[in-house]
């Protein structure tokens, strides 16, 4: 079904978010006549989310834009277990303090994308530790566990993948799908939540929650998943050659975030605009049709819009200005990373490591050998070279995309 009546499903369909729906007609009818609270869960395994989580965050944003209520569920409880979906090995478990610190840090990210408050369509953030931590093991197994058969649990991709690869799957992780299903049950009871959204790998977990709600409470619940978001080269969204593209500024600068979007493949521009920006659909159609060098202007529009949403308008303008100065005018932009040198000179290897372009001197040495290191635009071919830093700023580059400044410390 694609002739949706509700603003919610029309919006999600037009922008490419819909992969699977448990009951399209039922959800469409419900969303047409009442406010639908919907949730997505996020485990707190790090102090920031990354671009791989962005489609889920945007789903909640679209839910709110269509007049419904987003519920952000932080996995303070499930993080202690670990979601086996998409994992080949057991995840390192965090203690309560580490999980709490991560949740506090992650909340600031959601505040950029969602409007929180007490209104009927305002977003709320809840922690599933509030109900999972107080569960008693035997009563939980008796009341909830009896609705899950081992036969069926073994058919889920998150389990089959690990077993097929002969990777260990702990009993702790095996319980994750039951706990996630129980989250949906609790959310339907506490917040009248009727919809769970998530990536395509969460389909089995979502269906479990829907069936649990029907069996225990007789509640009609719904599920919606997005397609797997990949880049045109087939790689997974959220990763780059340099690692994760983090959403929090303390993990990745707004300039580097802007550059990630600016360097998108030509073939991805339209898709990324629909999924990750609020740019009007007609304007997206115009921009993605640009050919040759003109597509670069569309990429800048994408980078500006995505960065403004995650870091604010000022950060987006600064990043664009820095990029223009660095790449188009040949100057050193003011938003570039800076390393202050305490001596009159520094080795090229130490400079590349200290500014964060290389993880080790060995990596820096390989970069120099490959011709990827430059000072003020000139290639450095000697791994033993020393860089004089006694005057003004020195521009250091690693490859075509990483640029920074070496500056003599005044202290």
TrEMBL record:
Record keywords, A-Z: Aminoacyl-tRNA synthetase, ATP-binding, Cytoplasm, Ligase, Nucleotide-binding, Protein biosynthesis, RNA-binding
EC numbers on record: 6.1.1.1
InterPro entries in the cross-refs: aa-tRNA-synth_Ic, Rossmann-like_a/b/a_fold, S4_RNA-bd_sf, SYY-like_C, Tyr-tRNA-ligase, Tyr-tRNA-ligase_bac-type, Tyr-tRNA-ligase_bac_1
Enzymatic class: ligase
Domain Tyrosine--tRNA ligase SYY-like C-terminal: 334-388
PROSITE patterns from the UniProt entry: S4
Catalyzed chemical reaction(s): tRNA(Tyr) + L-tyrosine + ATP = L-tyrosyl-tRNA(Tyr) + AMP + diphosphate + H(+)
Protein task: Catalyzes the attachment of tyrosine to tRNA(Tyr) in a two-step reaction: tyrosine is first activated by ATP to form Tyr-AMP and then transferred to the acceptor end of tRNA(Tyr).
Name this polypeptide is given: Tyrosine--tRNA ligase
Gene: tyrS
